[in-house]
Design brief:
Number of strands: 0
Structural class: mainly alpha
Largest sheet: none
């Protein structure tokens, strides 16, 4: 198991670091090509829309095809897309903008396919008692990539030629493929999981399992209301409180640091009741939102920075606990041959609410005071979560995972 753990860690951090850096650099490059903030902004929503439209196809791919092959091919096709884009100038000379757009969409699709497959593969990589440990490791490596990606991207975009950068990303992807080839899928799927499935059977499963439907809704709510912090933090720090950009950069990095720390912590500490942990995390999240709405103008810089730092750290911990608990619960209770479909639905729908939340909160923070927006968001999230809690209280409090 230790060898698999190390190989998956290496694969996940290399792939996610390359994709995170790639998205950052090509996002800046795309903005430079267009000069349009609006067109650049469409990139934040076109990826989730494509993922949502391709959900049935991704579900069938992940639930029907060997997971190791999918992990390898998703990385390989990402590399081939980069090679095609960068080294065939005749094809792209007159359509650079269009093909840059298409490349970013393709990269998003391969990233989604890799992510969904990796989650669905955990049951074949380790024993049930180690699901949480593997999921925590996945969260930690993603957090590392999120921390390092923008830093490397900023360095690359300023100092390195785009073709050299692309070659380096391709090299990293190929190294990641080599690690993936040596991952050992020790635990074969059960006879039930070998049976052919389709996307309609996954939809039927969600209908029959109200707690899974509730988890999908929670993922939607979490991603939507999290936008209040992602959009509201620069408004709060830079505009309302007029603190320095250095303080903002520090606070912005704390979420990923908290996710990294939370992932490491959950490799050691066992979550006894995943559903209960998810709902406790969501209720804590509603409190965090309300606390962001407390007026801070009269507080000193040190007190204000410490206060917001604590809230941001708690926010990052909540995300990693909720994500890890949700993934582990689904791995424990959803048949292996339907996990790909369930993860595809959760990823596609919840991620669609990220740009929608960003758009909505961008308008709200322009029109209303941050105190009002954060407070109403916290109250709204609470009103939405509590009915789901009561709807599934028997399963949650009994710890029934049947």
């Amino acid at each position: 198991m230790l060898k698999n753990f190390s190989l998956i860690s290496a694969t996940n951090i290399l792939f996610n670091l390359s994709i995170t850096t790639l998205n950052f650099v090509f996002g800046l490059y795309f903005f430079e090509l267009t000069g349009s903030a609006f067109i650049f902004g469409t990139l934040t929503i076109i990826g989730p829309i494509v993922s949502l439209l391709l959900t049935p196809i991704m579900s069938n791919i992940v639930d029907r095809i060997n997971h190791k092959k999918i992990l390898i091919y998703s990385q390989l096709f990402a590399a081939i897309s980069l090679i095609t884009y960068e080294f065939f100038p005749i094809l792209i000379r007159s359509k650079k903008l269009l093909l840059t757009y298409a490349l970013m969409i393709l990269i998003r699709v391969f990233e989604e396919l890799f992510s969904v497959t990796l989650k669905a593969s955990v049951t074949q990589l380790t024993t049930k008692s180690s699901y949480q440990k593997f999921n925590s490791m996945i969260q930690s490596t993603i957090a590392i990539a999120n921390i390092l990606g923008p830093i490397l991207g900023g360095f690359v975009y300023s100092l390195i030629d785009m073709k050299i950068f692309t070659l380096n990303i391709i090299a990293i992807l190929l190294i990641s493929i080599l690690f993936t080839r040596h991952i050992y899928f020790k635990f074969e799927p059960t006879q039930e999981s070998k049976e052919k499935t389709n996307f309609l059977s996954v939809i039927d499963l969600v209908k029959r399992r109200p707690e899974i439907l509730s988890l999908i809704l929670i993922a939607m709510f979490l991603n939507f209301f999290a936008s209040s912090i992602n959009i509201g933090l620069p408004v709060l720090i830079l505009q309302k409180l007029e603190l320095s950009k250095l303080i903002y950069s520090f606070l912005e990095s704390l979420t990923s640091i908290a996710m990294l720390g939370g992932g490491i912590l959950l490799m050691v500490l066992k979550i006894k009741n995943e559903l209960r942990s998810i709902y406790i995390s969501m209720l804590a999240f509603t409190i965090i939102l309300v606390l962001f709405g407390i007026p801070l103008q009269s507080s000193g810089v040190f007190i204000t920075t410490c206060y917001i730092s604590i809230l941001v750290l708690c926010f990052g911990l909540i995300i990693v606990i909720a994500n890890t608990a949700m993934t582990t619960y689904l791995q424990d209770t959803v048949p292996t041959n339907q996990q790909g479909g369930v993860y595809s639905i959760i990823n596609a729908i919840s991620q669609l609410f990220v740009p929608l939340g960003a758009l909505g909160y961008g308008l709200l923070f322009d029109e209303f005071n941050y105190n009002f927006v954060f407070s109403i968001s916290g109250i709204s999230a609470f009103v939405l979560v509590v009915p789901l809690l009561f709807r599934n209280k028997k399963i949650i409090f009994k710890g029934d995972q049947s």
